[in-house]
Each structure stands twice: as C-alpha cells, then as structure tokens.
Design brief:
Layout (H helix, E strand, L loop, with lengths): L1 H5 L6 H20 L19 H6 L4 H27 L4 H13 L3 H11 L1 H18 L6 H24 L2 H33 L4 H57 L3
Helix pairs in contact: 2-4, 4-7, 4-9, 4-10, 5-6, 5-10, 6-7, 7-8, 7-10, 8-10, 9-10
Length: 267
Amino acid sequence: MKQLEKRSLGVSGLLIIVLCLIVAECIFYFVYGNPSNFMNNDPNNHPLPGNLLGTIYKGGIIVPIIQTLLLTVLTLAVERFIAIGKAKGKGNLEKFVVKVKELLDKRDIAGAVALCDKQKGSVANVVRTSLKTYVEVADDPNMTKEEKQLALRKDLEEATMLELPSMQQNLPIIATTTTLGTLLGLLGTVIGMIKSFAALSSTGGTDSIALSTGISEALVNTAFGIATGACAVIFYNIFTTKIDGITHSIDEVGAYLAQAFTGKHKV
C-alpha cells in the first residue's frame, strides 16, 4: 500500500503545462511586447535596432507556445530531479546495496530491514518488501523450495513495477517535447517567411531591409524550437540514465537475495 500511495504524490504534468502557458503568455505580451521595445512605442512597428525582446515578440503567436514547452521542460526537470532524488533514498545508493549484500551474507534479515527503513526510497522499498516475503516463506512447511523461490521473485517484480511509475512520471511529456518543440519552431519560421514574402510582394519592389527583418523575426521561432528540443533531449537522457541506475540496483539486490535464499535452502 505504501507504494500505491507514493504513486499519487507526483505533480500533474497537465497542471504544469497550464501554469507554464499562463506564464509564457504573460512574458510574451508584457515583456516582449512592451511598447518601449518598438519604434514610436507601438508594438505594430518594427523593434528598436538591436532590441532582442521586440524581435522575439515579432516572431508571432507560435513563440509563446514554444516558450510554454520550454518552461514545461525546465519545470518538469526540477520536479524529476527532486522525485528521483527521493527514489534513490537518503544515503548513497551504491553503499546501501553493498551493505544489504553484506547483511544477507550474515543472514541478518532484521538488520537489512532496519537499513531499508533508514535508507528509504524506491530501492529500499523493494528490498524491504522482498525481505518480508523472504521471512514469511522461509520456514513455511506447506511450500516447496521452488514455490518459495517463485513467491520471492513474484513479490520482487510486483514491488519493482509499483515503484517504476513514480520514477517515470511526466517523462513522456519531456520525450514528446524533444520533437514537438523543434517542429513548432519550424512551423513558426515557415509562417514568418510566408508573411515576409507576402509583405514584399504587396509593395511591388525588393525591400531588402524588410526582407532581412522578416527573416530574423521568423528565425526566432527556430531558435526557440531548437533550444526547447535540445533541453528536452538532455534532461530525458539524464533521467532515463538515473532510473536505469536505480532499477539496476534493485535487480542486483534482488538477484543476491534470491541467491542467498537458494544458498540457505538447498533442499
């Protein structure tokens, strides 16, 4: 039940997206779109020379959408760092695994359970559950050795499956953003280029200043999109690597626990 309760403690990705959208819209209209960033204090005019905020505002309505994705990735990154940090537990995970194996060698199950209570986190939760099953089935005269080993492995797998969702929560959003951010950036760029050439054709001439300004404004979307996709890829790989490390520790302790059980119950 502890694992089931733990899964409900994560922050909703949808709530984060909505909040980031509100923040992004406020930044877009009140910071980038501040009249002081434009000629004659009019957002409908060109940005002041060298004014980056005004140029970003001219990137169009796609900009706050991409910025929403970027803010979402950064917010979820902080949330995942905290959540995965809690999943690893209070102490060093590698030292915890080594200590549990030492206690299993000594057949000190009570000491291993106490160590799990001190360590906390996903690995400790899984090990504690497996140790309790170990104690329950070890001296059960109604179960064969194979049945005991099967029960031990089953509880280990179930406890692991209950812990994984809490570690992987919101990662699909980050994974989706790796592609979505770049695609939206390209979409904003194409829209900006279409508007730029349409404006040039309506003048009946080749206004190089208007063309260069339009291109620079359109490329703002590409820059935001690439930055968003890059951040999402980096954080996604970091978190999946951390989760793989945690699951490896769980598998290592689980295998050692099964080995200790087999060594104690040879018949």
